[in-house]
Backbone:
């Protein structure tokens, strides 16, 4: 996510390459998608057969490497993304929204819809779901599991990059911003793994809890609110709110 | 004297009735087999006795007392041991270590004494080891004692499953498809072992099995299940020739045959 | 080739398998004891650091490597151990009581945290512990009157019956103190592993269902595993407080938790040696990087370059290489090398091949 944002900055910002924003975005997405795909092909496929937790540890380690790489290339100072419409705003009655915020809302809703349709309606999307639920069976059904997995990672890279760009447009970022990804985990878990609308709702909950809590409690306690909710959900409804989880018959 | 009794036991998974009003009792010292086509609910009965599931209705009694209030990890202390159809051994440990876990229900040491490895713990360990060695001798697993499960062939793993259950020194042994996947010779060995378990060790055996040669050779009584319901009960020969059983296995118009 | 003849059951119960092995460890022990006289102060400090990491590593190893429960939050327990120790000392409790007590308290907190999350497995448990780690960071700041919040606390000198020990003033004494704790934890850990509880832990890791069928109380065993693990890590935290002399909530952040986990994976999951190997890697990594960097810039004629974050980066690269090429960690590679020499020339490459299994989703359990 962080890396995607930085690549876009690199492409667009006048201090760097100064490419047109609307051109830079697809390029950045492409780069990140390719990166995700390559990552899976080169690294993750060798982990075939190892427990899930090993992959988690591996990706965490990759996060460290990316942070280091970003710092080495672009420095550790916070930078912000030059957004073409910065400054203008939209008025809806009494509500004033900065154009960046509108962009965030629109893109998020659009993305959720597109991904939802993709996973549920297209062959590729359903293939991805199948591969995630039972690899062996997917193989038997003729699904090229390895290629699909790489595509999944590519897709993940693209979506993360989009998130990164949106995030960067709202404020400054530095290489450590990637740690925000933890909240992404929380959002996915709360919504329930395997459910896209769930992830969206989870994200909204996480995002809203903090400012709301700040309103009622002191800022310090407010910071822990999202994580407390995460723990609560894990304890009471580990599958998340909209999960695909069922009990296995032994 | 009935050792284990199931009375009107029913279990549903959502709309599917896995076990439908099943009742039977297993007498002390006998070998009792559950047979039936796949999906008949046989393993489910085992899982009910092991307390992995709670029955919707009915009672399960061991030595006269209901066990429905017990947790699954309390069941071994009653003297009920079981094997698993799809081998659930500890892959990253040796055969010996697997068998020693079977002794867990006889554990007398506590956390503190174990951290300091008090002499009492050492004595306990020697005793456990002695019992496990007897099981190893009985099932001829000496060659595999220090080998990791992950490298063992299927037939040997099945035997280790049996050994681990025996190591708990049970009163009743629940065997879930002990012969599945075994060759003819290995099945022959299994027949001898089940007979020895009954005659030499006096352990009651409740067995789920498809292999009719094992069932016919070793069982005292047989109960046939299909679709969660009882079909017939009696000796192996009686059950095999029962019309309802024949229908369940082969459909109408056919004769029962040995597997 | 070495054949070990076992004449009694004790051969498998004893701590050392055979004479030569015991002698090797004895030699290692003597070396470790003599260290203060062999190396300079700086290196001794580094060695102490490695020992502290090893203790924390052993704590986490027990939970992750042997009991099979994931934890991305152990820095939180180091914090508990550290803070409770200092808080008690500030209120006049003698070190000899407060130090072990802080470990016990950390253990209790571990159990408390574990109880609600006992049902969770794999990635869900990891995320829950991650949340705990992040929360502890904030909790420390919230409890400011006790913990000094963001400013943190300063660790006073250790006082044992008048003998004053501090990290810089008396490095040798501090080293021996740390060594003592390391050895105590080591022996306790080893004892647990050869006792029924140790087997219960591995049973828990490999097959919860059949462990239950053998009479292992899953909830209780998991809680105990968490308790011991967090207690040991708490002790390491206490020592870390003295080593760092000053600390605040940032000292025990999420990155530390992650580093601990990465460290034991590199060392070799499932073995006590793994904790030590991992500790050596993470302890000496900064030095190693500095030396290589100077070496490289010397060869290339560049000025001295400081690259921030390079430690995490290199560490991560090492981890990934291990996961890909040697999932058994350093200890695993060591075993393979040793077996190669023992069995020479009969060593077969696939002796340690792990059974690969197709991935099944964790959503169906």
Residues:
């Amino acid at each position: 996510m962080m890396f995607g944002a930085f690549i876009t900055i690199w492409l667009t910002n006048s201090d760097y390459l100064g490419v047109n924003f609307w051109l830079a975005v697809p390029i950045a997405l492409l780069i990140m998608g390719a990166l995700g795909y390559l990552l899976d092909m080169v690294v993750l496929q060798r982990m075939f057969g190892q427990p899930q937790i090993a992959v988690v540890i591996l990706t965490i380690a990759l996060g460290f490497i990316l942070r280091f790489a970003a710092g080495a290339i672009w420095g550790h100072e916070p930078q912000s993304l030059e957004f073409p419409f910065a400054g203008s705003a939209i008025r809806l009655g009494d509500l004033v929204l900065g154009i960046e915020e509108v962009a965030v809302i629109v893109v998020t809703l659009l993305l959720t819809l597109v991904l939802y349709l993709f996973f549920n309606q297209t062959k590729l999307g359903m293939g991805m779901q199948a591969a995630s639920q039972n690899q062996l069976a997917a193989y038997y059904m003729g699904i090229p599991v390895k290629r699909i997995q790489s595509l999944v990672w590519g897709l993940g890279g693209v979506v993360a990059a989009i998130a990164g760009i949106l995030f960067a447009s709202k404020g400054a970022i530095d290489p450590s911003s990637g740690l925000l990804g933890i909240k992404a985990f929380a959002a996915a878990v709360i919504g329930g793994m395997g459910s896209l609308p769930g992830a969206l709702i989870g994200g909204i909950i996480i995002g809203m809890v903090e400012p709301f809590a700040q309103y009622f409690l002191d800022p310090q306690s407010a910071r822990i609110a999202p994580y407390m909710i995460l723990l609560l959900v894990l304890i009471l409804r580990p599958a998340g709110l909209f999960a695909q989880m069922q009990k296995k018959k032994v | 004297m009935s050792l284990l009794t199931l009375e009107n036991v029913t279990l549903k998974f959502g709309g599917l009735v896995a076990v439908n009003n099943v009742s039977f009792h297993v007498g002390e010292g006998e070998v009792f087999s559950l047979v039936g086509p796949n999906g008949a609910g046989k393993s489910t009965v085992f899982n009910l006795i092991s307390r992995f599931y709670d029955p919707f209705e009915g009672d399960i009694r061991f030595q006269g007392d209901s066990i429905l209030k017990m947790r699954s990890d309390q069941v071994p202390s009653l003297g009920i041991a079981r094997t698993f159809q799809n081998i659930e051994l500890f892959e990253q440990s040796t055969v010996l270590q697997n068998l020693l876990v079977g002794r867990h229900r006889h554990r007398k040491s506590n956390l503190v004494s174990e951290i300091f490895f008090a002499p009492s713990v050492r004595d306990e360990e020697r005793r456990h080891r002695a019992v496990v060695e007897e099981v190893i001798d009985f099932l001829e697993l000496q060659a595999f004692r220090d080998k990791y499960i992950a490298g063992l062939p299927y037939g040997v793993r099945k035997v280790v499953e049996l050994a681990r259950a025996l190591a708990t020194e049970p009163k009743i042994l629940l065997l879930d498809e002990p012969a599945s996947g075994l060759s003819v010779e290995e099945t022959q060995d299994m027949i001898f072992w089940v007979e020895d378990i009954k005659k030499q060790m006096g352990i009651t055996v409740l067995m789920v099995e498809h292999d009719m040669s094992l069932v016919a050779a070793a069982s005292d009584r047989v109960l046939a299940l299909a679709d969660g319901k009882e079909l017939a009960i009696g000796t192996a020969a009686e059950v095999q020739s029962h019309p309802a059983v024949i229908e369940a296995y082969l459909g109408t118009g056919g004769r029962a045959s040995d597997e | 080739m070495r054949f070990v003849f076992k004449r009694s059951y004790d051969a498998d119960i004893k701590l050392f398998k055979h004479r030569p092995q015991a002698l090797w460890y004895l030699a290692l022990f003597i070396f470790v004891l003599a260290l203060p006289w062999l190396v300079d102060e700086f290196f001794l400090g580094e060695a102490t650091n490695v020992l502290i990491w090893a203790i924390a590593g052993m704590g986490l190893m027990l939970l992750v490597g042997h009991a099979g429960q994931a934890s991305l939050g152990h820095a939180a327990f180091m914090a508990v151990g550290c803070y409770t120790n200092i808080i008690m000392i500030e209120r006049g409790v003698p070190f000899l009581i407060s130090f072990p007590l802080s470990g016990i308290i950390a253990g209790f907190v571990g159990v408390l945290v574990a109880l609600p999350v006992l049902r969770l497995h794999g990635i869900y448990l990891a995320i829950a512990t991650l949340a705990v780690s992040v929360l502890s960071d904030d909790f420390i700041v919230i409890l400011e009157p006790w913990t000094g919040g963001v400013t943190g606390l300063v660790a006073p000198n250790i006082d044992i019956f008048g003998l004053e020990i501090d990290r810089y003033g008396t490095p040798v004494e501090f080293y021996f103190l740390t060594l003592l704790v390391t050895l105590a934890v080591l022996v306790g850990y080893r004892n647990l592993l050869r006792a029924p509880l140790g087997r219960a832990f591995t049973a828990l890791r490999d097959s919860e269902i059949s462990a239950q069928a053998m009479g292992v109380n899953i909830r209780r065993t998991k809680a105990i595993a968490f308790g011991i693990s967090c207690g040991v890590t708490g002790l390491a935290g206490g020592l870390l407080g003295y080593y760092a002399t000053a600390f605040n909530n940032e000292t025990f952040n999420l990155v530390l938790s992650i580093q601990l986990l990465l460290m034991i994976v590199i060392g070799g999951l499932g073995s006590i040696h793994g904790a030590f190997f991992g500790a050596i890697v993470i302890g000496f990594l900064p030095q190693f990087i500095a030396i290589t960097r100077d070496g490289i810039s010397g060869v290339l004629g560049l000025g001295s370059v400081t690259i921030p974050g390079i430690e995490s980066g290199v560490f991560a690269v090492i981890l990934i290489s291990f996961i890909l090429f040697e999932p058994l960690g350093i200890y695993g590679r060591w075993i393979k090398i040793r077996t190669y020499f023992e069995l020479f020339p009969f060593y077969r490459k696939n002796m340690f091949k792990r059974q690969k299994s197709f991935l099944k989703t964790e959503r169906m359990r």
Observations:
- The CA atoms of residues 216 and 236 of chain B lie 5 Å apart.
- The longest strand of chain B covers residues 2-13.
- Residues 1-79+171-259 of chain B form a domain with the Rossmann fold fold (CATH 3.40.50.300).
